Amino acid sequence: MSDSRDSLSLSSSDKVGRAPSSSRRVLTGDGTASGAGPMVLYNGVEPGEEGIDIVFVHGLNGHRVGSWSEDSVCWPRDMLGSDLPHARIITWGYASILGEGNEMFAELAESLLVDLSRIREATPRPVYFVAHGIGGIVVKEALTTAAMSRIYGSHNDLGDIYPKTKGIIFLGTPHQRTGKRSFGECVALTAQISLRSPNDPLLRSLAENSGFFENQHGTFQMISRDIRVVCMREQFTTGASRMVPKDSSAYEGFSVTRDDMAASHMGLARFSERDGMGYKQMVSHLTRLTAGPSPQELEAIDTRTREILAMLYFDQIHEKENKIEDADDKTCDWLMAKGSPFRDFLKSKDDAIFWLSGCASSGKSTLMKWALHNEQVRAELANGWAKDADLIYCSFYLYEGGNQLQKSELGLLRNNLYQICAPRPELVRMAFPTYFGGPWPPERPLLTTTSLTQGIYNLFANFSTKLKFVVFVDGLNEFRIVNREHHYSHEDTEITDIGEHGDEMWGSSKWARDSYSEIAKICMTYANKDSMKIIASGRELPSFEKNFKGVPRLRVQEHTEDAMTTYLQDCLERDVPGLPDAHNLCKELARRSRGDVLWAKLAMKLVLEGSLRTLRPTLDSLPPRLGGTDGLYMKMLSSLAPGDLQQCFRVFQLVLRSRQPPSLITLAFAEQGYWESTAGKLVATMPDRQPSTIEELNVVTRNLKERLQSFSAGFLEAEAEGAQATEAEQRVVFCHQTGKEWASRKDFWQEVPGVPPSDPIELDFSLLSGCIRHLKCFNMLRPPVSAWPDVRFRPEAWLLVANALRLCAGVDGKVANLDAYRDLLDDLDNTCQRAWVKSLQAHKPMYEDPDWYERKCPTLCRKHWAGYEPMETGKPPKRKDFLTLAIQASLVTYVSVKLQTLKGDMRRRKAEELLVHVVNPKPDGVSACGTIVGDYVDFHHDMPDPRVLEVLFEAGASARPSEEGEPNKVWSKALKAGRRFFTHQNEVTHLLETSASHRLLQNRERWVAAIKALLQHGADPFAHIELKSGSGESQSLRHYSALELIRETLEGEPEYAIDLNAMEAVVRRDSDVGSAM
Q1: Do 278 and 228 reside in the same domain of the chain?
Q2: Where are the membrane-spanning stretches (predicted)?
Q3: Highest mean pLDDT among 211-215, 842-846, 1006-1010, 1065-1069
Q4: Above 60 in pLDDT, residue 759?
Q5: What is the residue range of 198's domain?
Q6: In angstroms, rounded to a whole number, what is the distance separating the alpha carbons of residues 674 and 672?
Q7: Are residues 600 and 684 both part of a single domain?
Q8: SS3 of 429, please?
Q9: Greater pLDDT, 50 or 232
């Protein structure tokens, strides 16, 4: 190949057959063909037309024209205009990295962005890139830089190129490591296949920078999900058998298409004939990339949008806000008074966070709700900081007393994305591009902090100049890092004293304090003066004081005495009209409260319980604070009779132990305990202890509800969770977060005489018994099984099963009475099977259907209930019996006990049958229970406790090949399962650091342990494994030995290097034994 092509003149455009109108549109450009910067080769966009821009970026040591030319034909200039007439075709050149221009990738990326920004002059037309070799890395760096500049609010003029980019064709660009060759070595090899060989220092620099290229590609994958990508790979070698490794020149992704071209590396970019296969491939891909969606695609987009919004939504989004009383303007308008720091913040273009701090129960939530709905607040934002942009509000009221979703980062993200996208459905595709067009439910889970965080950043990157977000986050001190709770010991989660003043007197735990730091950092990370303001409220705790140092702030309790006086007067006038000297009483209560609204309300209630003559003495006798061993809460409990106090303590402990706030039914049964000592039986198995009618059930629950009002001293209340909930299904919660915090303090209860110590295992067994007994009477409220539109358990009934299994997982292995444990779970299984059969037999089809009675119903009645989990998306997991579900719930002890009841070959066959469920969790399908509690975790998605493998092997299960030499299918499935938990194409970069997923780490550890166990029990390390990757046109099939697949799965995971060595040692030991025999 002659270098003379690199200095071709533009006059050669007439040598290829093109329409005369096209030839008139060819621009000569400024500068020489071999220079740096942009050059317009062709412009088919008439004034007033939208058109498209196609930008060509050559490889290392290439040239703007010559790199795209063959036999004096520059195909982007001379041929492409006829096939894409409404395009402007631009070529961009650059000096060699380090070799000539001493420019690094970041500098080249910025040069590309600056040049394109100048030549495009803010045109809204879309951009498509064609990048060859190392030029693809320059394009990736440029788009990553542009996206991050929009996310972080700097250089938006350069960042505008990112949301306009709709497609990229990479020609022989390395994207990842391959085999034993590092990413940097793949890049260096690509650099060698250039027009002029680069110098050795450059090659060494590229080869040694794998970390940079891996981070760049990880970030690029994250920001390019809405960009269609084509990876073209060469089939012919260059020179001495050199070519970009096939596995490196493409990568997996939903919007990524792979294609091979019968050409060498340089030939990927050079065509001289319109009828040539290479040119036809190129035009075909460009035509596809630039085409808009079809009507069928638009319908599919609309359907997927609704599916994603349904997944983001959860019932409790507005629960806590709805519980907060509406404030009168006259009690909150001080926040918007002239000179208020809050008002200044709303107008400011420099401040991104405002902190409404205040002592416990000082009215912060009420003030936040007032600000959220106040029109003056919105107007100040819209006319100032958000002028010329769409103003979008989000609000999240953290609620420690609710389910895990209501107090976690996952809940915050789901809440915000739903509130942003529900009124503007077109934003869903911008936030989650990779979830469109693929299977549903998606192979890659949507409801993870990683996926949702990327959704937020995608919106920032695409709309940072058009949308302005204001996020109200209430109750920072109620946030919990629920995904890392398992990392803490029991002592770390127990509330203890940390101070005697202010909010510190409520006590805290290490877990809670780490949570405070985490939510503060989350707020600081998302706050962006250009695109997002955060208004946060929380207690005045050291973590917040440290992390919010310097941000604008108001201390609520310093401004509420007059407002509280007014509020108390209104309450008093409503409840006790005409009370003498009411104004002075309310003013005194407000003064003594020191901003604590709850103290004032409780104090007023206690004062009014006496006579007019005792008002002042009662007021003077009240403790000046709520918490502590001498506070108002202790005074309220101390007034209870001894019997009521013990009941109060037990109910408190049961509510605190519950995974979600328990219903009145479950709590009423749990309070009665799980064991009847007189009869020596489980209470759940005693028919005479179970209500037989709805009237009897209502008596049980109403009795508890009435007693809550007396013996709980006002700490607990029953509230309806949803519009469909009956009174019996109301859940029991603490009236205020401070009450829950106080009740959690063991040191306080030690000060209360007559209260026995609690037994956590007994409490869990009692709650388990309560769940089972609730299931036994579920059909009194509604059928536990739904037969339309498909046959399945109702989500509300399945949630009781799931809660029971979670409780069992907490005590499994700690139980002294194994018979009682087994019998209780057996009763759960039998209860559900009876409910399943009874509901099916009672079902009456909507239309006459003889087949239901003759065939369908009898067949379903013979099935096991565990195989009919209610699903929001996908099919329910296949489960033949309760043991399958028990394994997925990691109930190792229960499985062991049950297998021991089987004999001989029956035991072995059952163990063999269960083995696959331990090593191959199914990622498909999402449970419908998530729509009820939001934080529901499917059992079938995760690796069970690997200790159950030893139980199955002891029972006779085998991982060895069959006697006929057939490979073990369980072994093959176990190996493939690891690909779901390990990936070298890491989507989380240093730019998007989030809390490590406990479940992902646990799944990795359990998969490694399972593979080691299978090898130790005879699995064939040399078994042949076929692995499919990609889909459609991009699908490929690769062949491995089992050991090769294990190595590739764990490659690049240093924390598992010791485990990999141990596995290889097992293989060597077995090979040595085999040789000796």
Answers
A1: yes
A2: none
A3: 1006-1010
A4: yes
A5: 3-292
A6: 7
A7: no
A8: helix
A9: 232
In a domain? residue 903: no
Closest to 719 in 3D by CA, of 705, 703, 707: 705
Which residues are within 8 A (CB) of 102 and not within 5 positions of it... i.e. 6 or more apart?
Answer: none
Q: Determine contact, residues 125/51, Cβ cutoff 8 Å.
A: yes
DSSP class of residue 661 equals P
Q: What is the DSSP pairing of strand 532-539 with strand 467-474?
A: parallel
Residues 93-118, mean pLDDT to the nearest whole number? 77
Distance of CA 1067 to the CA centre of its chain: 38
Q: What is the CATH number of the domain that holds 400?
A: 3.40.50
Residue 135 inside a domain? The answer is yes
Integer Cα distance of 603 and 759 in angstroms: 34
| Structural domain ending residue among the three candidates 837, 868, 899 | 868
Lowest mean pLDDT among 19-28, 512-521, 1030-1039: 19-28
Cβ pair 692, 682 in contact under 8 A: no
Identify the band that residue 100 occupies on the pLDDT scale cut at 50, 70 and 90: very low
Q: Kindly state whether residues 403 and 524 are assigned to the same domain.
A: yes
CB-based contacts of 521-525 (< 8 A; 24+ apart in sequence): 521/547, 522/409, 522/412, 523/353, 523/473, 523/476, 524/353
In this prediction, residue 99 carries a pLDDT of 44
pTM: 0.66
| Cβ-based neighbours of 1007, under 8 Å, separated by 6 or more | 943, 974, 977, 978, 981, 982
Alpha helices in 267-403 (DSSP H): 277-290, 295-312, 319-323, 329-332, 341-347, 364-373, 375-383
Give dist(CA 397, CA 29) in Å, integer: 58
Residue 879 lies in a domain: no
DSSP letters for 177-228:
-BTTB-HHHHHHHHHHSSSSPPPHHHHHHHHT-HHHHHHHHHHHHHHTTTSE
Give Cα 288 distance to the centre of its chain.
32
| pLDDT tens, residue by residue, 423-461 | 999 999 989 988 887 777 777 788 888 889 989 988 888
- Does the pLDDT of residue 900 top 70, yes or no? yes
Distance separating the N- and C-terminal Cα atoms of the chain: 61
Q: What is the pLDDT of residue 650?
A: 92
Residues 995 and 848 grouped into a single domain: no
Neighbours of 926 (CB within 10 A): 21
Q: What domain count does the chain have?
A: 5
If you compute the radius of gyration of the chain from its CA atoms, what whole number of angstroms results?
34
Enumerate the β-bridge partners of residue 88: 43, 53
Give the length of the chain: 1077
Q: Which residues of 513-531 are buried (b: 16+ CB within 10 A; e: fewer)?
A: ebbbbbbbebbeebbbebb
Do 660 and 602 share a structural domain? no
The verdict on 588 and 675 lying in the same domain is: no
CATH code, 62: 3.40.50.1820
Average pLDDT over residues 250-265: 88
Cβ atoms of 452 and 417 closer than 8 Å = yes
pLDDT greater at residue 1047 or residue 255: 1047
Residue 1058 falls within a domain, yes or no? Answer: yes
Residue 438 is encoded by which pair of tokens?
Answer: 């693929």
Q: Give the residue from 868, 898, 924 where a domain finishes.
A: 868
Dihedral sign from CA coordinates of 824, 829, 831, 834: negative
Cβ contacts of 882 within 8 Å, gap of 6 or more:
825, 828, 829, 864, 866
Cβ contact 743:631 at 8 Å: no
Tell me, yes or no, whether 386 and 518 share the same domain: yes
Say if strands 37-43 and 87-93 run parallel, antiparallel, or are unpaired: antiparallel
Q: DSSP secondary-structure letter at 855?
A: I
Contact present, 1067 and 999 (Cβ < 8 Å)? no
- Same domain, residue pair 280 and 229: yes
Instruction: Report how far residue 67's alpha carbon sits from residue 270's, in angstroms, rounded to the nearest whole number.
Output: 7
